[in-house]
C-alpha cells in the first residue's frame, strides 16, 4: 500500500486533534506515515499518540532550525520525503501555516493543490465547501502527488493501532536569506473552554453585547452549555473580545451541532463562518435582523433578559 | 529608497451574492459587483506609510481581467505611484499555484524590489497561500499574517498573528515578502486630489507571453487541480420566531430540550 504523508501539527510535543483527523483521512488513501518536524526530542513525546491513530511510520525531522524558522523547514521535510517515497498524497491541516506549507510544497513539487478539504475520498478526490458553505464541490488533483489541506474539525478522528516505526529524515540547512527567523512566540492561551473549531456548541456575542465587561453574559451561557465562546467582527473590533475568537469570513469557520448568536445582526460575512451549523438559535432586539432568516429558533428580545434566563434554565436542568 | 510592490486583487463584493458559473465551475465574476479587496487597501496603506517615513516607490501589481483596472485605480488614488496589470484571456480559471507563478514572474520584471506586501487572505477564495507561494518561487523570506510591521534599515520585523497559533515574532533581511491581516491599520480614503492624480499615473499592462510564460501553463484546462462537480446547498429556511414576552429564555430552553440539544 502506498504511503500517505501526514504533517504532524504539534506544540512542544502536544499533538493537535487535527493531526488525528488527518491520520484518519490518510487511511482511506493508503498507509499513514506521520512526519514530525520539530526541535530535537519532539518525536519521542508524540510517537505514542501517533501510533494510537494508526501511524505506520513516523518520519523524524528534528533540528534546532525546525522551530526557529517559519514554514520552510516543514516544506523542506515534506519535499525531501515526497521525492524519496513517492507517496499517494500529502495531508496537511488547513491552519494558517498549514495552508502556506501546502501551497509552497505543491509549487515545489509541481503538484496539484487541493485546499481546505472537508472530506477525502478513496479515489483521491476531495470534498470542499466554498463561499461559506453555499456550494459543495468535488475536486481532484490533475498533476503529481496530490497535496491536500484538510479543514480542522471536518473529519471525525478514529483510533487505530499503528506500528509507528521511526525513521530519521535529514533536513537541508536553512538559508536565512530565504526564510523568516522566529525570534519569539506567544501561543494562544486556550483556557478551560473547548476549542472553537472543535466545539459541538458555540455561543457567540456581537456588538449588541455592548462592552467587554458584559461579555460575561455570553460566557455564562457558554459555560452552562459546555460551549466555546465566539464573537462577531464588530465585537472584536470594538475590543469586547480577543481576535482569536472571531467567527466569520475572516475569522474561524465553525460547524457545531448548536450555534447561539446573541446580539449579532447576521451580516453575510458572519454567516459565512457559521451557516453550516446544524441548529442555529438567535436572540436579537431587531425583528428585521438577517440572522433570523437562517435561525431555526429566534427570539426577538433583549439578550440581557433572554440569555441569563436560558443559562438559568440549562443549569437547573443539569441539576 | 525602498521599492515596494503591493499585490492587489479585485474580488466580488462580499455584500453581494457570489456564485459559481454552471458551465465551468469558476467564479461567476459578472454576477457580483467587483471591488478592490478590503485587505489589499490595508496592504497599500502599509506600503504608503513606509514610503512616507523615508523614501520609496510603491508599485501595485494585479493579475486579473480588464475590469480590474478599477481596483488598480483605487490603489493609485490612495497614493501608490504606478501599477502593473497582468491581464490575459488565457488566465481565466488559473489555480493558486499558476496565479502565484504569474505574480512571481511579473515581480521579476521590476528592478530591485525590496519588499512585497500582500493581503493575508483574499475574501473570495479563502486561499491564504498566494503570498507564501510567491515567497517560495522568488526565494524570499515569508513574513506573513502581520498585524504589526516595522522596517528598520535593511531588516524587517513582523508580529504574525493567527487565530490558530498565537503571536509569532518574525524577522528577516530585505528583500522580503510580507502579508498583512485586517487588523494592521485603517486604510485612508482617496482624496479628491488623489483621485485626479491617479488618472495620470502609469499603468503597464502585460500578457502572460510578455512574462515569458507559456499560455499552456495557466488557465482552467491546465489547472493542476480540477473541480469535478459543484452544487449549491439548499438555502437555510427560517424556523420559528417568537417575541420575548418575559419567557424568551425559557422558550429557547424548551426548544433545545425538544431537539435533544441539552
Ligand atoms: C471583507 C470583510 C470581512 C468580514 N469578516 C467578518 C467576519 O469574519 N466575522 C464577522 O462577524 N463579521 C465580518 N465582517 C463584518 C460584517 O460585515 C459585520 O459588520 C459584522 O458581522 C457585524 O457584527 P455584529 O452583528 O456584531 O454587529 P451589528 O451589525 O452592529 O449588529 C448588532 C446587533 O445586535 C442587536 N442588539 C443590540 N443590542 C441588543 C440587545 N441588548 N439584545 C439583543 N440584540 C441586541 C442589534 O439589533 C443588531 O442586530 C466582515 C466585513 C468585511 C467587509
Ligand atoms: N490575482 C492576484 N493578483 C494580485 N495579487 C493577488 C492575486 N491573488 C492573490 N493575490 C495576493 O495574495 C493575497 C492573498 O490571496 P489568497 O492567497 O488568494 O487568499 C491577496 O490579498 C493579494 O495580496
Characterization of the model:
- The complex is a heterodimer of chains A (about 325) and B (about 260).
- Chain A is of the alpha/beta class and about 325 residues long.
- Chain A has two domains: about 5-170, Rossmann fold (3-Layer(aba) Sandwich); about 200-319, Rossmann fold (3-Layer(aba) Sandwich), CATH 3.40.50.1220.
- Chain A is built from nine helices and 17 strands.
- In chain A, strands 9-8-7-10-6-1-4-5-11 form a nine-stranded mixed beta sheet, with helices on both faces. A five-stranded parallel beta sheet of chain A has the order 14-13-15-16-17.
- Chain A is elongated and about 60 Å long.
- The relative contact order of chain A is 0.11.
- The mean pLDDT of chain A is about 95.
- With about 260 residues, chain B is of the alpha/beta class.
- Chain B has one domain (about 1-220): HUPs (Rossmann fold).
- Chain B is about 25% helix and about 30% strand.
- Chain B contains six helices and 13 strands.
- In chain B, the strands form two sheets. Chain B has a nine-stranded mixed beta sheet, sandwiched between helices. In chain B, strands 2-3 form a two-stranded antiparallel ribbon.
- In chain B, strand 7 and strand 8 (about 155-160) form a beta hairpin.
- The longest helix of chain B is centred in the first third of the chain and has 16 residues, at about 40-55.
- Strand 9 of chain A pairs antiparallel with strand 12 (about 225-230) of chain B, so a sheet runs across the interface.
- The complex binds flavin-adenine dinucleotide and adenosine monophosphate (AMP).
- Adenosine monophosphate binds near residues 37 and 131 of chain B.
Amino acid at each position: 500500500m502506498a504511503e500517505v504523508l501526514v504533517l504532524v501539527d504539534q506544540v512542544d510535543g502536544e499533538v493537535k486533534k487535527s493531526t488525528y483527523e488527518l491520520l484518519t483521512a490518510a487511511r482511506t488513501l493508503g498507509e499513514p506515515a506521520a512526519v514530525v518536524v520539530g526541535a530535537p526530542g519532539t518525536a519521542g513525546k508524540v510517537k505514542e499518540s501517533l501510533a494510537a491513530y494508526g501511524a505506520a511510520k513516523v518520519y523524524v525531522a528534528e533540528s534546532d532550525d525546525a522551530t526557529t524558522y517559519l514554514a520552510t523547514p516543514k516544506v523542506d521535510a515534506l519535499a525531501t520525503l515526497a521525492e524519496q517515497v513517492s507517496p499517494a498524497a500529502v495531508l496537511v491541516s488547513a491552519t494558517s501555516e498549514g495552508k502556506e506549507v501546502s501551497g509552497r510544497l505543491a509549487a515545489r513539487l509541481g503538484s496539484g493543490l487541493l485546499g481546505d478539504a472537508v472530506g477525502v475520498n478513496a479515489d483521491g478526490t476531495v470534498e470542499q465547501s466554498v463561499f461559506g458553505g453555499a456550494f459543495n464541490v468535488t475536486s481532484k488533483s490533475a498533476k503529481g502527488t496530490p497535496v491536500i489541506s484538510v479543514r480542522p474539525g471536518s473529519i471525525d478522528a478514529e483510533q487505530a493501532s499503528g506500528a509507528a516505526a521511526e525513521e530519521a529524515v535529514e533536513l537541508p540547512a536553512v538559508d536565512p536569506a530565504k526564510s523568516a527567523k522566529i525570534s519569539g512566540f506567544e501561543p494562544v492561551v486556550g483556557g478551560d473552554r473547548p476549542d472553537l473549531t472543535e466545539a459541538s456548541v458555540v455561543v457567540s456575542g456581537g456588538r449588541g453585547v455592548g462592552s467587554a465587561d458584559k461579555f460575561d453574559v455570553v460566557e455564562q451561557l457558554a459555560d452552562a452549555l459546555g460551549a466555546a465562546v465566539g464573537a462577531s467582527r464588530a465585537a472584536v473590533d470594538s475590543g469586547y473580545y480577543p481576535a482569536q475568537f472571531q467567527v466569520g469570513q475572516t475569522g474561524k469557520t465553525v460547524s457545531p451541532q448548536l450555534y447561539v448568536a446573541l446580539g449579532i445582526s447576521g451580516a453575510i460575512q458572519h454567516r459565512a463562518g457559521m451557516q453550516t451549523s446544524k441548529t442555529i438559535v438567535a436572540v436579537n432586539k431587531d425583528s428585521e435582523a438577517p440572522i433570523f432568516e437562517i435561525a431555526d429558533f429566534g427570539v426577538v428580545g433583549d439578550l440581557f433578559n433572554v440569555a441569563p434566563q436560558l443559562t438559568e434554565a440549562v443549569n437547573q436542568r443539569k441539576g | 529608497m525602498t521599492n515596494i510592490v503591493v499585490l492587489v486583487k479585485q474580488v466580488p463584493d462580499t455584500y453581494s451574492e457570489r456564485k459559481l458559473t454552471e458551465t465551468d465551475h469558476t467564479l461567476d465574476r459578472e454576477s457580483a459587483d467587483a471591488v478592490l479587496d478590503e485587505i489589499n487597501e490595508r496592504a497599500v496603506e502599509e506600503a504608503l506609510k513606509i514610503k512616507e517615513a523615508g523614501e520609496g516607490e510603491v508599485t501595485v501589481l494585479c493579475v486579473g481581467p480588464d475590469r480590474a483596472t478599477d481596483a488598480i485605480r483605487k490603489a493609485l488614488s490612495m497614493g501608490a505611484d504606478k501599477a502593473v496589470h497582468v491581464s490575459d484571456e488565457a488566465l481565466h480559471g488559473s489555480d493558486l499555484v499558476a496565479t502565484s507563478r504569474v505574480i512571481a514572474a511579473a515581480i521579476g520584471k521590476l528592478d530591485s524590489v525590496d519588499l512585497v506586501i500582500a493581503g493575508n487572505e483574499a475574501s473570495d477564495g479563502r486561499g491564504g497561500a498566494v503570498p507564501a507561494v510567491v515567497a517560495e518561487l522568488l526565494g524570499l523570506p515569508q513574513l506573513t499574517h502581520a498585524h504589526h510591521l516595522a522596517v528598520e534599515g535593511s531588516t524587517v520585523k513582523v508580529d504574525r498573528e493567527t487565530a490558530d497559533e498565537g503571536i509569532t515574532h518574525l524577522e528577516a533581511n530585505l528583500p522580503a515578502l510580507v502579508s498583512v491581516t485586517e487588523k494592521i491599520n485603517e486604510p485612508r480614503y482617496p482624496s479628491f486630489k488623489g483621485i485626479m492624480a491617479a488618472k495620470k499615473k502609469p499603468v503597464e499592462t502585460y500578457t502572460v507571453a510578455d512574462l515569458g510564460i507559456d499560455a499552456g501553463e495557466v488557465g482552467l484546462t491546465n489547472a493542476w487541480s480540477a473541480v469535478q462537480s459543484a452544487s449549491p446547498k439548499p438555502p437555510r429556511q427560517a424556523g420559528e420566531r417568537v417575541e420575548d414576552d418575559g419567557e424568551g429564555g425559557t422558550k429557547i430552553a424548551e426548544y433545545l430540550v425538544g431537539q435533544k440539544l441539552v
